[in-house]
Amino acid sequence: MDRTFDLVIQGPGLAASALPQAALELSAERVPAGPGAVRLRAVDPARARALLPGLDALGLDAAVVPAGLLLTDFRVAASDFDSTLCAEETLDQVARREGYGEEIARVTDRAMRGEIRNYSESLRERIRLIAGCPERAFTDYASGLRYNPGAETLMAAFRASGLRRYIVSAGFDQIMEAGARHFAAEGWRCNRLEVKDGVLTGRVAGPQENGGEIIDGEGKRRMVEQLCRDAGAEPKQLITLGDGWNDVPMLRFAGLGVAYHAKPRVRALVALQVNHLGLDSVLSWFEDGEHWRQAALAGG
């Protein structure tokens, strides 16, 4: 039997009566799907996907999802950190605060856009540029992290629904540990800065779980694959979230990969996207999403 799909459209204060005519023509059954979200049931997926660019141009987020999708269908959630859960690229911000200029941020931007193919070497280059930076610059910065809109609600809903939650990042222990504590995550996988006498040596390595190799795009995919195995879960039971080029392998590996306010080359490769709203808008894709949103808000 052919699978049925729904189209979920979201925008601030959106109601079914405000949908574009082309969307209204897709389905006669339109139901609320959460705050500012409308679900159009049993749509033709090809016609619905053809509308996505136009809806995006109107400032609306939209996703074509399997009908009957439940958050409890999933067992593991793994998210990138910088510019996904966290509102900033943490290495760039620490470098600016410590007076290392803008060169690191320029390299980061090129790497996240996919303009530098060898991510590991780009990271080594950036870390060499901040050799001598005190380790405390990272731990101090971690105490005041700013998180993206909806991140707390989404992660709390994941927790309430029973998902195992992890941070998988090319960042560093000094910051990822703070992020994992904030979101009550089961753990994190990230790179490690070499520190001697309290200052950075300019060298970086990956975690033991990645054989000491720097976590790049393929490293992220290997990490989430291992997290699934550890949980006894299949890839189809995995949710991943990310924004940059090095997130693409894990986004495409997962049963549900979400590109959040992603770079253009990432959006071209990942079907499910949040381009305008906060992270918690993902919950509207699930039939039980509003239940888990309310459980999260109630502290359940």
Structural class by helix and strand composition: alpha/beta
The number of distinct β-strands equals: 11
Quaternary organisation of the protein chains: single chain
Give me the side-by-side strand order of the main sheet.
8-7-6-5-9-10-11
The biggest beta sheet reads: 7 strands, mixed
Mean pLDDT: 94
Which word captures the global form? elongated
Strand content: 15-25%
What is the string of helix and strand elements?
EHEEHEEHHHHHEHEEHEHEHEH
* Low-confidence runs of at least 5 consecutive residues: none
Enzyme class: hydrolase
Protein name: phosphoserine phosphatase
InterPro entries: HAD-like_SerB, HAD-like_sf, HAD_sf
EC number: 3.1.3.3
Could you characterize what this model shows?
The chain is α/β, with parallel strands linked by helices and 300 residues long. The chain is built from 12 helices and 11 strands. It has a 7-stranded mixed beta sheet with strand order 8-7-6-5-9-10-11. A hairpin with a 2-residue loop joins β7 and β8 (199-205). It is elongated, with a radius of gyration of 20 Å. This is phosphoserine phosphatase. InterPro entries: HAD-like_SerB, HAD-like_sf, HAD_sf. Pathway: Amino-acid biosynthesis; L-serine biosynthesis; L-serine from 3-phospho-D-glycerate: step 3/3. Keywords: Amino-acid biosynthesis, Hydrolase, Magnesium, Metal-binding, Serine biosynthesis. Its EC number is 3.1.3.3.
